Sequence to fold (678 residues):
Amino acid sequence: MKLIEKDGKEVFQRFGIPVPLGRLVRDPEAAAAAAAALGGRAVVKAQVLTGKRGKAGAVRLVDSAEQASQAAAGIIGLNLGGEQVETILVEERLEIARELYAGITLDPGRGTAVLIFSVRGGMDIEEVAATAPEAVVTMPFDEVEPVRRHTLYAMAKQAGLHGSELVVVVDVLFRLMRVFEDMDATTAEINPLVITAAGKAIAADAKLVIDDSALFRHKDLIPTKTEGLGELEKAAQQAGVAYVPLPGGDVGVIAGGAGLALATMDTVSSMRGRPADFLDVGGGVSVDRMAASMRIVANTPGVKGILVNVFGGINNCELMAKGVLKAIDEAHIDLPVVVKMRGHSQEEGWALLEAAGFEVIKTGTTGDAVRLMLRKIGERTEAHGDLR
Amino acid sequence: MAIFVDSDTRIIIQGITGTQGSYHAKKMLEYGAGLVGGTSPGKGGQVVEGVPVFDMVAEARDAVGAQASMILVPAVGVYDAGVEAIEAGLELVVIITEHVPVHDAMRLVGLAKRRGVRLIGPNTIGVISPGLSKVGIMPGYIYSRGPVGIVSRSGTLTHEVSSNLTFRGIGQSTCVGIGGDPIIGTTFIDVLAALRDDPETKVVVLIGEIGGAAEERAAAYIKDTAYPKPVVAFIAGQTAPPEKRMGHAGAIVQGSAGTAASKIMALTEAGVVVSPTLDTVLDEVKRTLA
Fold:
């Protein structure tokens, strides 16, 4: 779960990381009032989850309440990479002496987390890493033992910090590691980490992503904004399946396992079909979860047929077959359906589907199943053409 | 020969009294795997499918000589179960459970490394040495004994490729699902290294998917070690729309890796035969064995 900057900063603040004073507002009048409370000089920033803000003019410096109102009016409603700006942050303007970078993320190659620090902040850290790798220091850690403060001193010194800067920055790094660990973050990033003219270290931005699998440990975290989901995506979330609609497709795909779902889409494309969605039913599928998956794919725009490609491993073929039939029966799905299914309780699953008149791929490949699906869609389309 | 698990491996299931635990206990025994017991705190003394249940892994280790554990407890309990198995000194710990918090996985991977325990998963179907044994939830009959070693991030793609091979008369030496999560215990490289020294394995099938850089690292390993056995690879997600990128911190570790094109190029340059489609993996394996 991604958090907007303001939500991230509130978490940072809870862990003792200094952040600028600021207020979240939704209209120009409130923006003016917030700027006035800060003495007029302020930064007005769009609060979005994905879109790039800087180049789109969605972060503006203002010197008065009136300018803040104008800036807010210009930013609210902007479309940043498909995301509509609804809320903005009006924030204290810092007296910047230096801009640093601090970030923590996962390093799958090592199987650890990694702390990344650079004295060249404020810009694209990937670019810094590519052009001046010596300016970026990294430290892997895996939370089995606590990281010591002196280890962070060594790292920050290596990056070129000394004196009081060393102390204030290491304190932020130490607290950022606590945020990362205690909040089950997959990314915790401050860019820039500002050193003010007065010598304080303040997080001028916040990027915080929480592991979706760990949200059960963070029920008190109520995000201001969550990713906008369509009706079908919400239904998928509720049913506990991973679903992504693919505009322009006509072959509905339901698979067990993300890898098989991707490979099924690839196979459809390789035979000149167009997959309409990615849907992974996950493990421990119930009759209801399978039925919900069928309904979601049947309602996906453009779908002309549904291909179910599943295994009875952690799942059970009989339950999955019942789910397919339940949806067809209750939701009156009138589309060609092809099921490829084998594994635990396959005989029971096959028998149910065949009794209901469906063709089942038992030992054939995914390619065989896709070929049959495309043929059935072709036949149906032709028949409809004849009627016309 | 086989890697990681064979007919002598003494296995327990952590979470054996649950719905999944008892079901897969039955399936493992039917398959002839050396399941010698299970654990479930508070249920010590019970019997499931004829094998004894213990409260703790250390008790199962002492009483029935447990060497390997299959963890089938809900995600919220995986960390504690994993630590218990590792600290009891088992040799092999396989975490089947999906949706395990990534920080829990990272701590388990770190602990297993320090203790020299082989950890497989989380979010995996496990490992099977067909005809000998399995520490996993795969339907046994779609696997058969033979010369093909399989390593995969995707469980159901392992089922797909193995069953396609089995139904056409080609068996497997050992198949390892390494798991689909970003942080996992046993990697592609660990399995490739083990299969290299397994005399029964004549060809390796590597099944990857988009995201991360595990396939690129495997390719570098194959190239750098002049890997002595033929490798056939398949990458799922070649036609998937590009992933949304997470923050800069993620991009800096992965660089430009993660796309199917990047993985296919790295593997091809390492001398791996990359199958264009899922179905053609069969043909490539046949050709390599001929």
Remarks:
- The CA atoms of residues 94 and 196 of chain A lie 7 Å apart.
